Amino acid sequence: MASGHQPNLLSLKHKTGQMIVSGFEGTCLNSRTEKLIAEQGIGGLILFERNYKNPKQLKKLIEDLQSLTAQNSPPLFISVDQEGGRVARLNEPFTQFPPMCCLGEANSDDLAYRFGLAMGKEMKAVGINMDYAPVLDVHSNPENPIIGKRAISSNRDVVARLGCKIIQGFKDAGTFPVGKHFPGHGDTSQDSHLTLPRVERSKESLEKIELVPFAQAFQEGLDVIMTAHVVYPAWDEDSAATFSNYILNDLLRKKMQFQGLVMSDDLEMHAVTQTPEELPALAINAGVDLFLICHDLDKVTRLQDAMIDGIETGKIPHETVDHSFNRIIKSKEKLTDDNEMDLEQILEENKKLAEEMRSYLTE
Predict the structure, then answer these.
(1) What's the rounded Cα separation, in Å, for the pair 282 and 315?
(2) What phi and psi values does residue 127 have, to the nearest 5 degrees?
């Protein structure tokens, strides 16, 4: 690790900043976004439609964002929620892939790998280095209002096998895949964007179905998972997975031996009722490394201030923050500089792949 990244040499502002992935406004640099990176030391950004006009503009924006990081600081995670189907933040000319359920219908390792590689290359070509995909949830509840066709399959083994192939494709393209939504959002009957769902299943059933794709993905070398804002009473009667020490520490870290980054789902979703001041101690003590706030920059500042205050007052152990920081730096060391990639050629190839995938789509 470069000396400039040693945790004890960094201010708390920049150390806590590395633990935040924030949304931002605009299609070009502005003073607020500059402050977010240069002053607050925010370590990651998430892109939305509001940041995108065309690929050329997006590539320039990302280059400008990366140029704001301090000397010897690690690069930014530049992330996007681009799964295919209805979850796609970047519209045409980016490839409009069909939802992942068609990969389950095709049940082809080769097609799943080619999809991960294609999506990963497309993102990498404009400077995006992290994609919130694949969905590793098993579609075990037909009434689920939020997962549905986003899931690869209702069969845990198909999700596990094809999910691993997608991950392999992303990694070969040089883009971080993020497996979601740990420990499984497939059996909910409510949408965590709107309320806090509960999955009333036995521990044995959850372990036999929901955890299988994640366990295999960890063996495949998945570096980042996103948590579910869902309560699993069999494991933790009160806390959603994002705030559950049992789920993120005992289950994920100790039992499943996951060594990578634990990232929250968006902390502005209605399933999260805690204030930005309450969130840091809850989430860090549970085991969260990266906090995702998609829209409200005031909440980002309040969250970061509360993190610093929590560390200074002892509510948040300094050692825990250092562990998260070191995991983040270790992951970022895997990021490679973008070689010039021919986006037009990639898009042309991917259009054919999207058609091939669409042929397996059933109503």
Answers:
(1) 10
(2) 100, 5
Q: Which residues pair with 224 in a beta bridge?
A: 178, 261
* Catalytic site residue from 191, 193, 296, 338: 193
Reading the block at residue 297, the tokens are 């920059």
| 72, 10 Cβ separation under 8 angstroms | no
pLDDT of 2? 39
For 127: left if phi > 0, alpha if psi spans -120 to 50, otherwise beta; the answer is left
Q: Which helix (H) or strand (E) covers residue 292, if one does?
A: strand 291-293
Q: Determine the Cα–Cα distance for residues 350 and 333; give it in Å rounded to an integer.
A: 29
The per-residue DSSP string of 34-55 comes to: HHHHHTT---EEEE-GGG-S-H
Q: How is residue 171 written in tokens?
A: 């990694």
Q: Tokens in use for 70?
A: 């301090």
pLDDT tens digits, 20-72: 999 999 999 999 999 999 999 999 999 999 999 999 999 999 999 999 997 77
Q: Name 77's bridge partners.
A: 44
The alpha carbon of 72 is separated from its chain's Cα centroid by a whole number of angstroms, namely: 25
Q: Are 322 and 67 contacting, i.e. CB atoms less than 8 angstroms apart? A: no
Q: Is this structure's pTM higher than 0.85?
A: yes
Distance CA(357)–CA(269), nearest Å, equals 31
Token reading at 41: 């030391």
Active site residue 289: no
139 catalytic per annotation? no
CB distance 84 to 97 below 8 Å: yes
Alpha carbon distance 113, 171 (integer Å): 10
145 residue type, one letter: P
- Domains (ranges, CATH) in the chain? 19-358 (3.20.20.300)
Q: DSSP states of 143-161 as a string?
A: T-SSSGGGSS-SSHHHHHH
List the catalytic residue out of 131, 137, 236, 265: 265
Strand partners, 45: 22, 78
